Structure formats: structure tokens, C-alpha cells
Amino acid sequence: MGDYSKALEFYEKALKIFKKALPSNHPDLAAFYNNIARVYYNMSDYPKALKFQEKALGIFGRALPSNHPDLATSYDNFGGVCQAMGEYLKALEYQEKALKIREKTLPPNHSNLATSYNNFAVLSRKMGNYSKALEFQEKALSIFEKAQPPNYPSLATSYNNIGDVHHNKGDCSKALEFYEKSLKIREKVLPENHSLLATSCNNIGMAYFGKGDYSTALSFLEKSLAIKQKSLPREHPSIKTTEHIIGYVKEKM
């Protein structure tokens, strides 16, 4: 929390200087609003994040051409905050705007286009549209596989997200296939206590639980818990949730 507070203090001081020196619709001001929004987003203060994303988007919308890449990014960021707040229809509206710009202006294998496909897929999954989610996750994966090295983190994210869709559809075996691909990459490129490793272990554990393999599920869930206990505050909700799930798995054994 201290680092976020320092970041906010820095950005707000810089913003005051730039507001005096620049016109009110200058893109550099929008960039500062965006940076402040990202800090609030990381702090899970989504209403404040949305407030600053709206300011950034307002400037970009007035100052940039309608197909400018920075405008697409601003639409995407705004949609991401809406999604975090559970406003899925509003998020969909803005992420579709971002996707349309990127499809018109970027090469078909550009990583930003893959990011847009991925964001659209995650939102579709949360809205229960699994076929659409899978369609866009596979588009994102196709780009990442061509554009990135085989152990690149974005590839691991894409595998994990495809696993999520299959898990939501009830196909735990297919979910495991992609979760394990994701974990294999993350184990190679991330520190041993990284939160994404905990996420991967948790996802694999839950997939094994869905298959009725409780002992293997317990093994992965305990790995996830061990990472969280080393990397998160003791009272963090994620630790409590994992402890509760482990207790439930033990009852089923």
C-alpha cells in the first residue's frame, strides 16, 4: 500500500505542474490521468479508477483521430475497470470499441490485437457466453503462439484463460490440459512465490476436485496456500478462501 501511496503522490504532484503548463485537452494530461487510474485500480479502488479513466478517455476522444491506437487503449482500460466493477454490458461496449480500432489499424498478428481478443474473451466468459469466450481466446492464443517465445508469460495467461473456459463448461480434463501448460511456463519464468503460480496451482487443484481426484486436488491446493502464505498478509481473503476449500476437500476424502 505504501508504494501505491508514493506513486499517487508523485503522479498528483506532476499532474498539478502539467495542468498549469498544458491545455486542458493535451494528451499528456490524459496519460497522467491514466496512470493515476491504474494505481487506484491496483488498489482495488475501482470508483476512483473509473473517475480518472473517464478523464483520460474524454481528452483522448477530443484530441485524437477516431482510429488512434491510444484511443483504443483508453477504451480498453475503461472497459477493464467497468468489468472489475461487475458492469459487464458497459465493459463490453468499450472493449468492442477498442477491438474495432485494433482490427482496422493493426497487423493480424500484433500483440495488442491478441490482448483485445483476450480481454473480450474473459468478459464473455464472465457473462456466461462460453462459446464466444473460447472463440476469442483461441484467436488470442494463435497470435501469441506465432509472436512470442514458447515460455512467454502472455502465452501462459492465454493457456490459463482457455482452461478457465473449459472449467466453466464442466470439462475438467480439457481444463487441466491448458492449466498444466500454463503452470509449466510460469514455473520456468516466475519467482517461486509469485501470485500467478498460486493461481495456477489453485486452478489445477480445483480441476482435479471436479474430476473427483481429491488427493491430487489437495496436493495442488496446499501448494497454492503455501505460496499465498509467503507472499500475502496473513488475513488476506485469498488465504482464507483457500483454507476453506482445503477443509472442504479433506471432508470429501
UniProtKB/TrEMBL annotation:
Q: What InterPro entries does its record include?
A: TPR-like_helical_dom_sf (IPR011990), TPR_rpt (IPR019734)
Secretion signal span: none
Annotated keywords: Repeat, TPR repeat
PROSITE patterns in the cross-refs = TPR
Mapped TPR repeat ranges: 30-63, 72-105, 114-147, 156-189, 198-231
Q: What is this protein called?
A: Kinesin light chain
Its taxonomic path starts at: Eukaryota, Metazoa, Spiralia, Gnathifera, Rotifera
Answer whether the UniProt record assigns the keyword Repeat to this protein.
Answer: yes
